[in-house]
Amino acid sequence: MATPMSADRLLRVLRGAGLRVIEHRSWRTHNRNHKGPWGPVNGVMIHHTVTAGTMSSVELCYNGRSTLPGPLCHGVIAKDGTIYLVGNGRANHAGLGDDDVLRAVQNEQALPADNEANTDGNRHFYGFEAINLGDGKDPWPAAQLEAIEKAAAAICREHGWTHRSVVGHNEWQPGKVDPRGFTMASMRARVEERLAPPAPQPPAPAPSEESIVPANWNRATETDIELTPGEWKTVPAGSVDLVTGATSYTGSMHLTLTAPAGGTVQGRFFHLRPDGTRWTSPIVERLTTSGGSFMDFPHAGSVDPTERVRFEAIYYPADDTDETPAPITSARLRGLYWK
Ligand SMILES: [Zn+2]
């Protein structure tokens, strides 16, 4: 349910959808508002004209007939997709239709069969007349179908409606056959797709193939060394380089060690430079627990091609007179790095 758009707003919405729109004669003030209410609006109705020829069809929809005064819709959609605006306000296009259909449109639900003519549709629907003979033979050019889709979707988007607010005259008023030549279900599917939010954009391409594929950072040793209280030791034993030269790395050293509860283990990564100096990461501290401790020391960074990444740990027992070493039974590095 929505307040009908002003002429300016409707024009802006349609042109904003990329449509070619022509303002025909005094369309802005041409309506049937003196014969009945206009709004609240609930949907967009699609018709075919049962005519051929663009300008004669546009004139007919503007003027109407002796038995049915114009405007006969709001916009006429030509074979080439151009939309001619012929009315703004109440227009003679929908006639009396089924209140159950109106309720379904209002609730954005699938439509029931139209088997009643008890409700004023001209009050509630924007109307578009697409130029077609309606004989099942007159073709529907792609440009015309696309214009129907775009116009309906643009109005739905503007009012916050879904594709279910787009109906055919043949779904509203018993006995009506228009539009004929395509199904409203297929048109609603097109409108639904057009209203769908854009797919997420893929990330910007990386500068090179090598840098986008990470390597597995995975070092493990089952039996390692003992941490003597108060002494930094490189883990795993043997001064293993965990990685050299990486634009980025992220990982965690997982240690299992045996020590009385209440002690602490500190760990840190460091980068060993060619001249023997070091950069060290912040210390991460873990508490020992009884019956063996599993602890992890995460870190992420980048390292120069000439530098080696290593890890070291230090153990402080709960009782600082205790000099029993803490055996590390496994040291396992897991992570990823990008060269
Ligand atoms: Zn119709």
Q: How would you describe this structure to a colleague?
A:
The protein has 339 residues and is an alpha+beta fold. The protein folds into two domains: 189 residues, 3-Layer(aba) Sandwich (Lysozyme-like), CATH 3.40.80; 129 residues, icosahedral virus (Jelly Rolls, Sandwich). The chain contains six helices and 17 strands. The strands form three sheets. Strands 9, 10, 11, 12, 13, 14, 15, 16 and 17 form a nine-stranded antiparallel β-sheet that branches. A six-stranded mixed β-sheet has the order 1-4-3-7-2-8, with helices on both faces. Strands 5-6 form a two-stranded antiparallel ribbon. β13 and β14 form a beta hairpin. α1 crosses α4 and α4 packs across α5. The protein binds zinc ion (ZN). The site of zinc ion has 4 residues, from loops.
Strand content: 25-35%
Shape: rod-shaped
What structural category arises from helix and sheet content?
Answer: alpha+beta
The CATH topology name of the largest domain reads Lysozyme-like
Uncertain runs:
none
Largest sheet: 9 strands, antiparallel
Question: Termini separation (Å)?
Answer: 58 Å
Question: Over all CA atoms, what is the radius of gyration?
Answer: 37 Å
Count of β-strands: 17
Hetero compounds: zinc ion
Overall number of domains? 2
N-to-C order of helices and strands = HEEHEEEHEEHEHHEEEEEEEEE
Number of helices: 6
Q: Calculate the mean pLDDT score and round it.
A: 91
Specify the CATH homologous superfamily of the largest domain: Peptidoglycan recognition protein-like
Helix content: 10-25%
- Under the CATH scheme, which architecture of the largest domain would be assigned? 3-Layer(aba) Sandwich
CATH class division of the largest domain: Alpha Beta
